Each structure stands twice: as structure tokens, then as C-alpha cells.
Amino acid sequence: MKKNNPSYFWPLWFLSSLNKEDQAKIKPSTLKKLMKGQSYLWNALNIYDDILDGSSNAQKLPMANKYFRNYLEIYYRLKLPNDFYKHFNSLLRDLELANQEEFNQSKLETKNNLVKIPLKIPKFPSLEHLSRKSLALSSGPLALLYLVNSPELLERASGSISFFRYALAAKQLSDDAQDWLEDFQSGAITYPVSLIIKLAKESKIKLNLEKRPEIIYLLFAKIAPKISLEIKSLCLSARQEAKNINLEKNNQLIIKIIQPLEKAVSKAEKFNKLLTKKANLAI
To answer: CA 34 → CA 28, 78, 114, distances in Å?
Structure first.
């Protein structure tokens, strides 16, 4: 169940940030249920995402719904305080809205290998919103606070969600930056793709994938430094929220989620400087 699922251990790692007395209040069987819930949700979200981006057919939808139903059953059987379910329902509502917006979003069209840039390029006013499709994965760690149910820990609820919001937004932006070409070719307008086509439009550059494929790479090189800075900023915000909720720097949530992103950005920045210097990008 936990294979290839990085979120499986999040409740365990989050629990380790609490004091020993509070940790002892969580039954091993309950912790196991929360970890299983992470896997059910992770599997459901991945199938939903595949269906939305067109890389998987709708035959997998019943399987995704089964995973999602199992996830919900775990949480509703826990009978947590009402305040938890307010957060829980808000997370699920964000997931629904994010999926609906992605479904309704315009796509890039290509005719005779020439990319048609839409009149209204989708806007991304808040990069934190990139976490909305996966932020429900914070429900496992969040449930632990309400299971212990001490006033001190409950004050960390909003901050805990904020930590995952920034961390998962940074992760999504990093993934989108890695997959930019695949997304561009499939017509999906992610944030990096939106920057590319916006720059092409402002520079009055025609994008022809057959005759001048190098142009799109040069455009990405232009916007890559901006994306790197934004990932760094999101990681910094996640670290600040982690500090606010007493999540230590050596906690596995920091080591497994934040540090790899920061290292990847550092490598990307070095590469971008070298590329810019050699190519002397003049578009």
C-alpha cells in the first residue's frame, strides 16, 4: 500500500514532532489507519489527475472512487471533533474546485505545427493554489492534533495546513517545471507553460514545433530563473510555518519534502547561469 507513495509516512513523521506524552495518546492502530488513509487518497488523486490530463481513460474512475471512499470512511469512523471536519470539508472543497477549474481550463491548439496562443492566457494569481489538488493529504497529520485534542496543539492546526500548503505548492511547481515540455505538447496550460506563451505573445514570436523547435527551449530558459525563485520562496514560507508549529529542521517532513526541492533549485540555477552565458539568449 505504501509503495511509491511518499505521503504514507507523513502522519508518523508529524507525530514525531509532538512531545512523548502526546505521542503516547495515539494508538498504533489509529496511526496505521491514518497512514492507510494517506495511501487511499494518494492513489485516488493520481488516477483523477491522469484522467483530467487525458493520459488515462475513464475506465479507472471506479477504482479511484473506491480509493476515495475508503479514505473518507477512515476519517468519518474516527469521529473527530467538529472543528476537524470543518478543516476536512474545506480541504475536500478545494480539491473539487481545483479539479473543476482544470477541467474547464482552455487548452493550447496546434494547427500545421503552429501553436495558437489563446486570447486569454490562464492566470495564476496565487501560486499557493497549486497545492489545492493535493492539500487533502495534510488531513492525516491534522487528525493527530485533534486526536490528542489539547489546546496547545489545536492552536497549530491552521499553521500545519499552511506548512503543507506551501510545501505542496512548491512540489507541484517543481513537477510542472520538469514536465513543461510534455504539458506544452499535450496542450495543458500549467503555470510554466503560461509564462512561456505569455513571453512568446509579448515578443510576437510564432511557435512552430517543427520548423523552429529550439525557440520554445530558449523561452523556457528565459522564464526558468523566475520559477526557481518562486519555488525557493514557497520553500522558505514552508520552513517558516514549520518553525511556527515546532517542526524541527531534522524532521523527515522537512528532509523528504523541502530539502530535495531546494537542492533541485540550486542545481537548476547553476545550469541556467551556464546556459545563459553560453547561449547569450537573444530572442
So the answer is: 10, 10, 49
Nearest by Cα to 242 from 182, 179, 156, 171: 156
Among all chains, which residue has been given the C-alpha cell 487511499? 40
Distance of CA 164 to the CA centre of its chain: 9
pTM above 0.85, yes or no: yes
Q: What are phi and psi of 279, to 5 degrees?
A: -85, -25
pLDDT tens digits, one per residue of 127-155: 999 999 999 999 999 999 999 999 999 99
Q: What is the DSSP letter of 122?
A: P
Distance CA 142, CA 136 (A): 10
Q: Distance from CA of residue 279 to its chain's centroid? A: 32
C-alpha dist (Å) from residue 277 to 126, 228, 271, 281: 31, 17, 10, 8
pLDDT single digits (tens) 172-183: 999 999 999 999
Cα–Cα nearest to 238, from 110, 83, 91, 127: 127
CA distance 33 to 148: 16
- Residue 115 has phi, psi (to 5 degrees) of -80, 130
Query: pLDDT for 187-213, tens place per residue?
Result: 999 999 999 999 999 999 999 888 888
Instruction: Find how far residue 95's CA is from the centre of its chain.
Output: 11
DSSP per-residue string spanning 192-261: HHHHHHHHHHHTT---BTTT-THHHHHHHHHHHHHHHHHHHHHHHHHHHHHHHTT--TTSHHIIIIIHHH
